[in-house]
Amino acid sequence: MEMWPVEEIPDCDSLFYRVLVAALRADRKPHPGVFSENKGSMSTDWGKYSTARETRARPGSPEKFAVLAMIVGKIREIDGLKVRHSPTQNVAELPDNQAHTDVFGLESQASADPDLGRKLRIRTELYKRFNKWEIAPGTPID
Amino acid sequence: MQMSRLEKLLESTQNEHRFSDSPYKVHRQRNKRFGFHENGSITLKDEVRPFKAVAINQPSPAEQEWRAMEEEIQAANYIQQIENDAEIDDFVPYSQETLSFATDFLRRQMIHAHAANMIGMGIPQIGPADHGSVDLFWEKPDRTLLVNFPHSGEAASYYGKKRTREISGRFDPSDSLPELVIWLAD
To answer: What Å distances lie between residue B5 and B1, B8, B29, CA to CA?
Structure first.
């Protein structure tokens, strides 16, 4: 099987981002704390190769997750964030996923002159742009 | 002897007070008995009295704000129950200590605000963030303020934004920051 190519993602496309329902407040609305890195990036799925439902169900137990949709161009507007298509294929302990896309830059690299509020600024900006659910918590599973 | 019109009117009014079940007239009768006319019209007394009773029972705006804050703090206890269900490699459990850093800071800020007669600092959302840290997030129509308390009591950090101004910095999570009170309430 041929390896999936890394593609350039247009600004108008959407990325789907999974959020753990147990980490939500009682009002079950998104909050700035839902935006976090895992293994060096925010892990998302590109809408070209995944639906929001598939993103929700990918790790199993879809009822535990809600999904946000993030417009790529709106992510790129935020100073410090980069979007890169990074399909996973034949990677140990990772399921194959042509939609997989990394959002880099939330965690700053160590530097001599750290920007103290950088990460909080980025989380605030992400929250302001993406605070409506694509799949709300508690949505029934098909 | 013929009664004047005024005398007839007074007599009929007195009879009304004596026999009527109308709450309004009973009130007037009682007030006359206890001499409430001394300080002004009876109408004013009847209006003022229930108003005062409500005012005594009604919590002040500062008390209301404090209660709302305590409700938010109470609701935030769920954070300690969050488990690693999201395949996060470097998941750090949320501790009571971290949550207390955030909520104690919030109480200190509120005390500063009320000591300065500043009502309307607002109640932040208390929520979980990455690496076992806890956020306080104020969201107002013209500004936001995000304060993050890392796990294990490391320096807390904040970022605030108004239309044309931004603030950010770090601080000892055991301290308070009165300047943020002003920033939120001005």
So the answer is: 13, 5, 22
Domain limits for position A118:
14-135
The total domain count for chain A is 1
Q: How far is A1 from chain B (nearest CA, A)?
A: 28
ipTM above 0.90, yes or no: yes
Count other Cβ atoms within 10 Å, centred on residue B55: 9
Residue B108 burial by Cβ neighbours in a 10 Å radius (0-12, 13-18, 19+): middle
Q: How far does the CA of residue A23 sit from the closest CA of chain B (Å)?
A: 6
| Interchain contact, A33 vs B128, CB within 8 Å | yes
A41: pLDDT strictly greater than 50: yes
A5 part of a folded domain? no
Are A26 and B75 a contacting pair at CB < 8 A?
yes
The ranges assigned to domains in chain B are 5-57, 61-185
pLDDT tens per residue, range B51-105: 445 556 788 999 999 999 999 999 999 999 998 776 677 788 999 999 999 999 9
Residue among A31, A38, A124 whose CB faces B159 most closely: A124
Chain A residues within 8 A of B169 when measuring between CB atoms = 116-117
